Amino acid sequence: MRILITGASGLLGLNLCLHLAEEHKIIGTFHENKLKKPPFKAVCCDLKVNQSIEALIDKTKPELLVNCAAMANVDACESQPEIAKQINAEMPGSLAFLCKKKGIQLTHISTDAVFDGKMGDYTEEDAPNPLSVYAQSKLDGEKAVAEEYPSAIIARVNFYGFSLSGKRSLAEFFLNNLKSNNQVNGFVDVMFSPLYVTDLVDTLIKMVKKGLVGLYHVVSPESLSKYAFGLKIAEKFGFEKDLIQPRSVNEGGLLAARSPRLTLNIDKLRSTKIITPGQNACMEHFYMHYLENLPEKIKALS
User: Fold this and answer.
1) Which domains does the chain have, with CATH numbers?
2) pTM for this structure?
3) What are the tens digits of pLDDT across the range 209-254?
4) DSSP letter string over the chain?
């Protein structure tokens, strides 16, 4: 399959490209963060310019486009709302319009953060209530994609893994600090259901092959606090658990509000016979890739 992946220098986009490159023809787009000799075709493209992405689509003729491009730094979105709107809300709608026009399958990546986290166990039918500029812009992006291309997949996700900078995911934060014997905080009052990134990639491809359309929650069936997540990493990697201090998110000094209970119901996805792994299985995959020097291999691409 010929797959065009936007945001190929981001955590999800890069891991998606690397994981699929052996079996598929991959074209990945980047803008500011150039990739050095990746094992797939990497193309510089400003996705904010419609003519640029349309020209790239016409040249590469993908069968599937996976939109991973996003302004994902929550606090940066808070201070630069117009840029967040342009990248997270308007650009996905333009991609959806082009994909429908040209008959290309589209999978758009959204976020669990569209909910306020007061209730938890959210289904796809529950009304979102975003608390931050980032969350609102991502919700607006969902709406734009659904309006322009109802046959697209919209996946609300939460994931972790290894990135170009080594500093993009919560897992990397814990891993880097614990390895250096640094004391860190873990939020006991923020619940989430993350997938390891390659488990998410495998799930997304299964969804495409099954011909699914519409909105799906694509997370682990098991939830835990961010404090408990840090403890899992410490235990798996053999680090000192006492380095992680239990704290409330209100003590974190964060600019944007965070949703406390981002647990998503995945019954809709399960009804398709697609099963996502639990937290122990995800952590095992994360650990095995660490032992296989994946972090260094990814950093070598920067």
Assistant:
1) 2-299 (3.40.50.720)
2) 0.94
3) 999 999 999 999 999 999 999 999 999 999 999 999 999 988 766 6
4) -EEEEE-TTSHHHHHHHHHHTTTSEEEEEESSS--SS-SSEEEE--TTSHHHHHHHHHHH--SEEEE------HHHHHH-HHHHIIIIIIHHHHHHHHHHHHT-EEEEEEEGGGS-SSS-SB-TTSPP---SHHHHHHHHHHHHHHHH-TTSEEEEE-EE---SSS-SSHHHHHHHHHHTT--EEEESS-EE--EEHHHHHHHHHHHHHTT--EEEEES-S--EEHHHHHHHHHHHHT--GGGEEEE-GGGS--SS---SEE-B--HHHHTTT-----HHHHHHHHHHHHHTTHHHHHHTT-
